[in-house]
Design brief:
Number of domains: 1
Strand content: 15-25%
Order of helices and strands: EHEHEHEHHEHHEEEH
Strand order of the largest sheet: 3-2-1-4-5-6
CATH class: Alpha Beta
CATH architecture: 3-Layer(aba) Sandwich
Bound molecules: flavin mononucleotide
Structural class: alpha/beta
Shape: globular
Radius of gyration: 15 Å
Oligomer: single chain
């Protein structure tokens, strides 16, 4: 049981923002959100438009018991600028799955959707944990690797994975998203 796992105690009562970008691994984040909710964290989900094509916001709304944020333009809980309120109000951001596109955007300061804008607006001390997920060629693309290095070195963002293994494109290789439980454990250790 997640709530009885002492390794996850650091998440209890913390405000966790889970950001999904549009990869096939979105379905695994349902389990992540459920675990984080079970340990007593206050979990809020935001999704890119592409992510909503893989799993519906309703799934995350139900598992988190909270509104799911998908747009900068539609106010959900308060009427401040949505991206600023979300960026200010969290102890940790988990970006999973992180697409090649989203890594490129956030490493270049591009803010053209809610997820990239919130990440750009985060206070510098807010930890960000990124779980990339993509096809092996996309992961090995030197541009993707350059973007990852930039996010690590300039912004001190933390990465978990990707792992090697079976991929949705029916090949095996690097780029498979780390398992949800491993991402949750890494998130807890960042808040200890
Ligand atoms: C079936 C399908 C699966 C995809 N899986 C991935 C993936 O795992 N990783 C990735 O980087 N892009 C993947 N893409 C491409 C992204 O969805 C696409 O680059 C999109 O623009 C990402 O938008 P976002 O970063 O705003 O969510 C996939 C696309 C499709 C149609």
């Amino acid at each position: 049981m997640a709530e009885a796992n002492p390794q996850l105690a650091a998440l209890k009562g913390r405000r966790i923002l889970v950001a999904l970008s549009g990869g096939i691994a979105c379905y695994k984040i349902a389990s992540l959100v459920s675990t984080v909710a079970q340990v007593g964290a206050d979990v809020t989900v935001m999704m890119t438009e592409a992510a909503t094509r893989f799993v519906t916001p309703l799934t995350f709304q139900t598992l988190s018991g909270r509104p799911v944020y998908t747009s900068m333009w539609q106010a959900e809980e308060n009427f401040d600028a949505q991206h600023i309120a979300l960026a200010r109000g969290c102890d940790l951001v988990i970006l999973a799955p992180a697409t090649a596109n989203m890594l490129a955007k956030i490493s270049h300061g591009i803010c053209d959707d809610l997820v990239s804008t919130v990440i750009c607006a985060l206070p510098r001390e807010t930890p960000v944990l990124i779980a990339p997920a993509m096809n092996t060629e996309m992961w090995n693309n030197p541009i993707t690797q350059k973007n990852v290095a930039e996010l690590r070195d300039t912004l001190n963002y933390q990465f978990i994975g990707p792992d090697e293994g079976w991929q949705a494109c029916r090949t095996s290789g690097a780029g498979r998203m780390s398992e949800a439980d491993d991402i949750v454990a890494a998130a807890a250790s960042l808040l200890e």
